[in-house]
# Entry
Amino acid sequence: MSGAFALLHPPASPLPPFLSFNRISHFHSPPPLSTADFWRVTSRRSVLISKASISTMTNDEESTGSLKKQLSKLFEKSLRITVPSESDVEPLIAACAPKFGDYQCNNAMGLWSRIKNKKDNGFKGPPSIGKVIMDNLPSSEMIEKCTLAGPGFVNITLTTSWIAKNIQKMLIDGIETWAPSLQIKRAVVDFSSPNIAKEMHVGHLRSTIIGDTLARMLEFSNVDVLRRNHVGDWGTQFGMLIEFLFEKFPNWEDASAQAIGDLQEFYKASKKRFDEDPDFKGRAQQAVVRLQGGEASYRKAWAQICEISRNEFNKVYQRLGVQLEEKGESFYNPHIPGVIEKLSNQGLVEESQGARVIHIEGVNIPLIVVKSDGGYNYASTDMTALWYRLNEEKAEWIIYVTDVGQQQHFEMVFSAAKRAGWLPANDNMYPKASHVGFGLVLGEDGKRFRTRNTEVVRLIDLLDEAKNRSKSALIERGKAAEWTEQELEHTAEAVGYGAVKYADLKNNRLTNYTFNFDQMLNDKGNTAVYLLYAHARICSIIRKSGKDIDELKKTAVLSLNHADERALALHLLQFSEVVEEACTNLLPNVLCEYLYNLSENFTKFYSNCQVVGSAEETSRLLLCEATAVVMRKCFHLLGITPVYKI
# Structure
């Protein structure tokens, strides 16, 4: 890193670095119901299916933050006048190349294909439709002019003074006024989900980072988000672990986490005994029966193993600044029989080679919900969890963040839920469930990222390495002499952890990506380090001016007389629709691309427009502050802590 950073006192109204669960404590789930109580509610259909698009506003008010929605509202009025017979047509508004304008309405060609064979339609082709759409547009202070291009495209140029006014309004009222307005009120985001007694490894990195960002974007959009950690805390492997615990520690109740040691090694040792010792294997199998039967000592040993794992997981979550509420497999286990019974009563569950299955149209293999030995599996748990989330937690959107290898499994679960009537057949209706798949993390050799001895890389080691490399770079540049140890430590964490997160999030999640410390900690190009540098530089510009930026927000006027000022301001105003797009398509890389382009727009503006000492200093300081505010919100949504000092 050629620049160095420090966390400085943030602005008067700092953005919290991480969300607190206090915000959603009012809708934490109730304690597990008994099976009888759980099924008292099944006689009624408590899942409400609603026909709505996530991009539909909840009322008729304009969204102050979304240019696209405000333009859509104007063009919708024009379309109703232009083609009253086509009342289901929605405005097609998109940002366009600067040489054409700011936005474009692209309805003309589609409309022509619908009405060209109708008698007396009154039009000669797409250009004539575009002309009438333009002529019927209501007057609005936000639109300076419209022009017609090609086959009926309506190019829109926004009023520069209107852009400036809306930027200044955000500075006064806060960035929250630019939050997207989504149709849904509550969502579940199921992410991270490690297995008890196993280390969190680099494979959990993507689920944890992507899931946290999706949750943050939905929370910013005023959706109540239930952040669920569906840990693997139940199953036959616990018999093996408990029996090994009893054997190795006769006084196991007094054994500390330090005595037990590395749970990963503990798991491997117990597995080795299980595979090699038939007597141990028999005892382990009996331990499973006793655990599932509720025998007190086995339940207590199970809880002790889970707690040790949970403490290790929390070390990772603390470093990443991720908040989760654990509801693992064991939470849903008591309710599985009721779910299977309900599905059976609907005629969906069939016998097949001793197992009980649900057949899915178009899939060669069935969804096994009860194994041939009578035991339950992932499908049993996932079907039950989905039912619970829809009916007990009243979620309208359930989002599962796992690797792409689990896509077919979740598609089968969702298909079964549609057959049962829990979900609508139309994926554009609510409630709905979505699988957010992601690719592999690769090493520089192009293979799955592992250590030299072929072990999967421990996630906590990876994060500590990123922080240590960041700290070393700061010390090399003499910052240890300039800053306190706390400043040095916090800055190293912000840059190191932020670099790891951004290197993942900037990629389309469906693709594999190569993990490379040198690239992600580079201060040039599309990296977190470069973006944190850009933000710190903006803060430095404002500080060097000596002006009270909060006072300027109240008294100064923003003007956009230079082309680069206007381009930067327009990009800032597009923040809301970008967040909405990233939410709707569940693609965090859309927000990363926006943030990188924002920094590039600012660099161009700052290169061509002097700020401090210019005649336009006051106005340009406001534009600098607006850029910093939006950058900080982007950082927050990506789970990255900003730095304020170079």
Remarks:
- Residues 572 and 627 are 7 Å apart (CA to CA).
- The radius of gyration is 28 Å.
- Residues 11-63 have pLDDT under 50 and may be disordered.
- The first strand starts at residue 93 and ends at 95.
